[in-house]
Structures are given as C-alpha cells and as structure tokens.
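Ticket #4471: complex job returned nothing on first submit. Input attached below:
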Amino acid sequence: MTEHLEAGAYNFAYLDEQTKRMIRRAILKGIAVPGYQVPFASREMPMPYGWGTGGVQVTAACLVPEDRLKVIDQGADDTTNAVSIRRFFQRTAGVAVTEATPEATVIQTRHRIPETPLKQGQILVYQVPIPEPLRFLEPRETETRKMHELEEYGLMHVKLYEDIARHGQIATSYAYPVRVEGRYVMDPSPIPKFDNPKLSGNPAIQLFGAGREQRIYALPPWTKAESLDFDDHPFETSKAPHDCDLCGAKDSYLDEVITDDAGGRMFVCSDTDFCAGRRARGMKGRLWAPKPEGVA
Amino acid sequence: MTLMEPVTTTDQPLLKVESLTKRYGPRIGCADVSLDLYPGEVLGIVGESGSGKSTLLSCLAGHQRADLGRISYDGRDVLAMTETDRRRLSRTDWAYVHQNPRDGLRMGVSAGGNVGERLMAVGARHYGQIRGKAVDWLGRVEIAADRVDDRPSAFSGGMQQRLQIARNLVTGPRLVFMDEPTGGLDVSVQARLLDLLRGLVRDLGLSVIIVTHDLAVVRLLAHRLMVMKSGRVVEQGLTDQVLDDPQHAYTQLLVSSVLQV
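Support reply: We reran it on our side without changes. The output follows.
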C-alpha cells in the first residue's frame, strides 16, 4: 500500500499493522458485546487528547484504500477539527474524501449523527471524551465496572430524578444515556439528545472510540438503544423551536448564530452537508441570499 | 407501656451464624462467633474499641469476606451466593446504617433522591410514585416534606442520620445492621433518634443487629445482648440479665464504667 504514502514514512493510515490489529480486535469484541466498553492500548496520536484521538484510531483501523471518508465536527464539514482530521487521513492513507453523507463509507463524527439517514455498509465513528456513563455519579472505576457487571443501573435514574426534582423535567440535553438491548447502559458521546432516536435500529455500524480513557465500544447494525426515562416523564427530544434560516428545514438540529450585538440571531442546520444539499435542491430559508455574481 | 416489646418468636432463625472467623493477617478480627437472630428480634453487640464488633458486622453484611464459618439467611447460605444475589439481597431485604451518615448517604444528591435510590435500584420507574414514597418516608423519620429537594449537606447531623435510616428502610427490609447509629450525636438528639428507631422496629417487625459501645442504647433497644472482647464473645443473654447481673469480669468492668449522672 506504499503507493498511497506521501513520503513513505508512514504505514497506511498512520498506525502500524500490529496496532491496527489490536484495535480491530477491540472493535470486534465491542460489536460482539454491544454497549460494553472494551479496554484497548490507546496510542499517542499526533494531536492532543480531546481532539478525537480515540475516533482517529478507530477510523485508522477501519479504513481500506477503497474507502471514502467524511469527517464532521458538530455536524459541520468545514470546522478546524474536521478539516485537520480529514487532511490527516488524506495524507497518511490517501483515501478519497467527501462531504456528502450518502457517498461516504466511513464517517468520523464529533457530537452529531448526520441528518441524512445512514445505510447499510456505512461505518459511523464517534469521538468520545468520557465513555463511562456512571462516571459523574460514581468516581471509582472498580465500582462502575462492578455496576456494569451486575447491571446495577439504579444510580443512572437517580441522576434523572435529580434533574426532574430540580428543573421540573429531565434537563440532560446531551450525552443522554441509553440502554443497549436491555443490557449495558452506554454513553452515546456528547451528541444532543435530539440524535438519540437515530442510535437505535440504525443500519450502519456505529463505533465509539475514547483515546484518553482507552475504551472502544460499539452498536452493531439494527441494535436497540433505549433512552432511559421515567414512566411519567418519558424521553423527549429537543431542538430550538425554529426553522433553518438558510434552507428552511423544520426537522433538523439547529445551531444558534449571533449576527450582531443588538440581539440579532439566526438558526442554521448544524449538519452543513444536509443544509447545502437542500439549498442545492432549491429550498430556501428566511435569510438565504445567493452570492451576488462575481464574488468568490 | 412496657419498656420491651414482645418478641415475635418463630421456630426458624432469620439469620444463623456458625463459628464465624475473620483474621487480619496474624491478628484476629473476630473469632468463632455463633449467633441466631429470630424475626422481630433486636440483638445488641457491645464491647470496647477493637473488640471486633464492627468486623463482625461488616462480615455479616457482606462488606468483608469471613475466613471461616457459615452464615445462613432465611435458609440460604449467604457465603455461597453469587455476588449478584448477595448484592440484590443487600439492596432489598437488608439495610445497613453507618455510624457516619456521610458514608451511607450521597451528599451531592437531594434527600428525595437519596431515599429513592434503593427504589430505582430495584426497578421503580415512576417519578411521581418514587417521590411520593420519599416524602412519606421523610415524614416517618420526622423530616419536613419541604426539605425533600435539599441536599443532605444542608441537614444537621441528627437529620442526616434520620435520612440515612429512611433511605435504608424504604424498600421494606427484614434485617437491619446498625453500626453505632447514635455515635456523634448529642444526647437529646440521640434520645429522639432512639425513640424513632424503637417505633420503627416495632411497627415494621424488623430484625436488627446493633453494634454500639453505648450501654444505654442497647438497654433501650436490644432484646438480647452479646459482649465481645478481643474478637471473642465473652458473654451473652437477655439484655437486662447481662446488664444487671454481669458474670464475666469484662462485662462487670463495662457495666461499672458507665457514668452515673
């Protein structure tokens, strides 16, 4: 595979074959035991912790030369994190890249699931800062492992109870815990709870990599992932109560953008590819104005 | 009202312990302890610091593993149970009241959440019902309903201890372990707590093993008494009998050491 290398200094997709093999083993185990956090020997990557070192290692272990990679950060293809990771794999693996969700075979994401439904054969790789859903309730790792082993998840509901007692509703709005196939409780990484329903029964493979915490976990295709809730306070998704100001979408997750210092604001799709695709098909939002002729 | 409530007797002991031994390396934690606890009975364990009473209690409650001996609860061998079963037992049928309420409470979680935790751990998933039950139990331990959303760190020591008791009793356990439940409280608060405990024990028909070095506590609460010294049981019998007519030299010392006001 040396023909893909820029200077012949790196193996395909940066990591050496033994490391990728080790990571693939962890991935396979994660897929075999959905929602279970598999420890793996996370490597130093040429980027700081918190920038997606776990996701990058999982992506590197999954990539083959025929792949077409898409990288998003909070839904956007053009932010620093997304651009630098995409360029990293262009240079070290030489794979094709795309911004179009349906064309990608591997999608690395930070904190969003694309709006366009995924399909069979695609792999969605999440960057995970803290894989342990019980961490802020129980600081001891030995104890949280025991709780997973014995399915003692009452504590998770204590957190939701506290939310309702204090705010009148479940105020957890991202990293909303899910129960996978009635067994492991899993942190879906800090995706908004708007995206939680897309976790469940998704035809794509979903892989989660936490580099600093050295954990990999997975949701195989068509796996059930139930968001935890109370009978009298059922799980509800939430989004800003607006339409996208650029493409007019009513059902996509929105970012709020401050436009001046006089209270002006606009709401735009956080998924840039989804938004651009809609505009290309002629759909317009409240504030959309095409670029004037002659402007780059 | 008589001081002692009648003991409801059945033929089968709820908890049966046979020659339990726990060593810390070459030292003895507790040695060769046997006891039977019948439903509705309160057993006091007294002894000086280091006499092995807390070790015994934590072995019984499953916090530590005993080296030798047998524990059977309700006819089941506790030491042979899987950890899942044992932990389920300690969440439902058993309760453990720590000396320091901070050990038994989640200080960052509201009073209601603390009481509700055991309910949620055994599968309660209805917020309104969990909250209703929490308020009910706060009332039973004399904590006002409007404190349900306050954190235990905003409570006084006596309230924290009462909250810990509510949190433990909410799932309707049959066997309660108490480790110095009145330790660190001033005497008037102690007296009210003891009153409360006595009422709860009688109303709910609890079996209790209470470890303390305070003879007044066992005089009020316990039906039977075990005196421990250097890890061994030196004397046992009915509470009044042991306290009024101590036979063993150490028990005589213990009884005569109590300050008379």
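Residues 1-5 of chain A have pLDDT under 50 and may be disordered. Closing as resolved unless it happens again.
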